[in-house]
Design a protein that fits this description.
Three copies of one chain form a homotrimer. Chain A is an alpha/beta fold. Helices cover 14% and strands 28% of the residues of chain A. The longest helix of chain A has 18 residues. The mean pLDDT of chain A is 96.
Chain lengths: 344, 344, 344
Amino acid sequence: MNRPQYQLNAIVAKFGGHVVGEGVAFINQVATLEKAQAGQLTFLANNRYRAQLAATRATAIIVRSEDAELTSLPRIVCRDPYVYFAKVSAFLNPTKPIVSAGIHASAVIGEGAHIDPTAHIGPHVTLGADAKIGAGCVVMAGCSIGADTVLGADSILYPRVVVYHNCVLGQRLIVHSGVVIGADGFGIAPEAGRWLKIPQIGRVIIGDDVEIGANTTIDRGALDDTIIGNGVKLDNQIQIGHNVRIGEHTAIAACTGIAGSAIIGSHCRIGGCSGILGHIQIADHVEISSFTMIGKSIREAGTYTGIFPFSSAQTWRKNAAQVRHLAELAEQVKMLQQAILKKE
Amino acid sequence: MNRPQYQLNAIVAKFGGHVVGEGVAFINQVATLEKAQAGQLTFLANNRYRAQLAATRATAIIVRSEDAELTSLPRIVCRDPYVYFAKVSAFLNPTKPIVSAGIHASAVIGEGAHIDPTAHIGPHVTLGADAKIGAGCVVMAGCSIGADTVLGADSILYPRVVVYHNCVLGQRLIVHSGVVIGADGFGIAPEAGRWLKIPQIGRVIIGDDVEIGANTTIDRGALDDTIIGNGVKLDNQIQIGHNVRIGEHTAIAACTGIAGSAIIGSHCRIGGCSGILGHIQIADHVEISSFTMIGKSIREAGTYTGIFPFSSAQTWRKNAAQVRHLAELAEQVKMLQQAILKKE
Amino acid sequence: MNRPQYQLNAIVAKFGGHVVGEGVAFINQVATLEKAQAGQLTFLANNRYRAQLAATRATAIIVRSEDAELTSLPRIVCRDPYVYFAKVSAFLNPTKPIVSAGIHASAVIGEGAHIDPTAHIGPHVTLGADAKIGAGCVVMAGCSIGADTVLGADSILYPRVVVYHNCVLGQRLIVHSGVVIGADGFGIAPEAGRWLKIPQIGRVIIGDDVEIGANTTIDRGALDDTIIGNGVKLDNQIQIGHNVRIGEHTAIAACTGIAGSAIIGSHCRIGGCSGILGHIQIADHVEISSFTMIGKSIREAGTYTGIFPFSSAQTWRKNAAQVRHLAELAEQVKMLQQAILKKE
């Protein structure tokens, strides 16, 4: 591959910061300190990687000003090397698949569907009646988009994404393979020992600049809509129940389950394998640890955790047995306190 | 959309209850108290929504007899407004996609497969040899159904469902996108530091009136079959291991994992993100909380829970540290009790 | 079905052990003690199933030498009946789907892709530019394989598997439906209240003899690669984050989440619904219980657990309330100890 290359001087002209050392050095890719080769730009954002500085084979490095003297390599000095690296990497590695506009012959397009002529519709895609695909969209192989659904401009759907009917998806969306948007929420009512299905007639509304990881599912609303705000980032295998609302720029790690009608604030960070019960409300700027179950609303920003700490199975067995008697133990301590008090 | 509309009188003629107020009022859709518009029917099932009664713009409302005087809107009075609403909504919003019978030209049909002439087979579907699709079935885009598999009448498979070979699926099934039925169970035997694969030669047998949420997986049996009873409702991203048996009318919420050979009773309700170990047996009418791990059999109906309660990360750190010393703490309390006793 | 049948003598000639009783008995399938019929071979590996011995209708049975006299059926005596059974079953039930070599007319093959003439490419498959499919591979309906990706010989991809571009997959791989390999890892950097996407330019490298369960996701590396060692067995709905490395012959049960850059040793066994935090290291031969969160590195082989034990919801409520005051309780016990000490 003949990758295009850029001088450090050109990089700082584009992204800010300043060069210390040879500004005419050329770089064509980013890499880690450990694996970087000649022609590659690396970065130091975390002190724990300082030990790798001496041995790196990178051509140049991005550093904070306080670290600028730790290396003699050509370097870009800036305030936040990780963010800087993210921008340079995005410049060198455009996310958008390189495809040509047009509709593959094997795609099946519903009546009244409107596809912008700059969009790409891949093989074996199906598009429902009256669906709308915006300018510059890339809809890859085997995606299925329901009737009346709208996909905003410059969005990418990787292979085998399913969007049900009547959903509204924003611009610059990135949706990874296996995602299902707009399936029925889990709405059932008990009657005489059986379950009646509650039709799910709401929609899914997704804002702009959202990314959704592989095999994540977002259910349509029961009556109202399920709403994902602008800039939300969802990792893989997340489950979003019906009528959930997620505020702008919240990020959620993999395998998290969010039950129906939960309302999550903006700028939250939710760890992986966590769970949020239905009808819960979570304030803005809340951080939730991995593997934590949120069973009541959180009204204040802050970090919240609830994890049973692991230990050797043997030790766990002894301690876990006591968990089952904790209330008794607390009662015994209270009685001891009273007994002592009485003797004084 | 010109939705068909119905008078309240026609609704009660069909579904029971009685009208208070204008029985000639027309409704064409259901909605929440908060979002309902003219022409829409809403319901009051939960006292916590009473405050929204005054402001609703609904044309009519479903209420219990004890709430009949809380509003002056035209109203349907009945025993269980939520169930009543479910039935009216199902009447106004038929779940079944409107498609025409027939086989799409791009579908690939195996030798000996039998498709009822009233069934719909969508684009890019593949059907294995000798598979059978019942009357009125809707198999949407990109589904793949293995050889010898049988799908009962009036079932719906949303886009990109996969059913492996030799499975037996009931009638009126609803299967959402991304579901995988009949993949191999996790059967491996250790030999000399490596794993031997155990062929999974059982089937998946699913009863009638079952619904399966998006991206849920149900493994085929190892030797015997995996069996899902009539009326079972499964939410999204559930994992059902090989040889599991689930009794009739049990409902399981999203992200739950059920390990191999577990046997779950009828009429159970299992919360989201919960886990059930292999070979466990669970009685009928058991309720399991979200985020709870069931590590031994449950012989009696009742509600069972095991969640580490969350708190601020700081508080959690202090308490979790003690969890690792609980057995010691209990021992210390016992010694204190003896010390006190000796002094008396 | 006219299944081929074999005499016990032929089985032991092939797989070792020796026959006690009629070596000329024919068997054509394996089954459990409980369900076996005439013509079937069963096994006794676990003492708890001894009670079923008397009633089995199997034609023959695999037993350990110490159990050889518990039955009068024709029997194969060997050291490890479960492993022996696994091998006979694999012989009688070849895992590989029976398909013919060649490329289905509906498949869409990218420029420069190389497909071995002995491989099978099913309907509606898409293959990116320069992808390589090895000898004897079976790529079933609707799979999508990205540009430059390599699939080793004799691998099976079940319907609707997605592999992104530039991944390297080994030989004799079994990948079940809905699996997504090589989607972007969750790499985001905060800047001014928004998230910047970090391009994920690493690959996924998978060794030989790996099996991957339905709807599991394995993200590509951020800068370096995500690496799955030889002989690794992954169950359904597992999430593997970017840059994770899993050592050889490790087995992981369903619904487990492994966060980015975790390094897991060889020969580990990880229970279902468990979680492993990012950047954690886990030694070889570590066993982790189901539903356990590993929040720091494990340096020694052994079994590790961290599960909140379940109880009736009522009992749980009382005990869980105390978990929130555990540090206080420990403090009170310490004070009591001092008070007692002072009195002595």
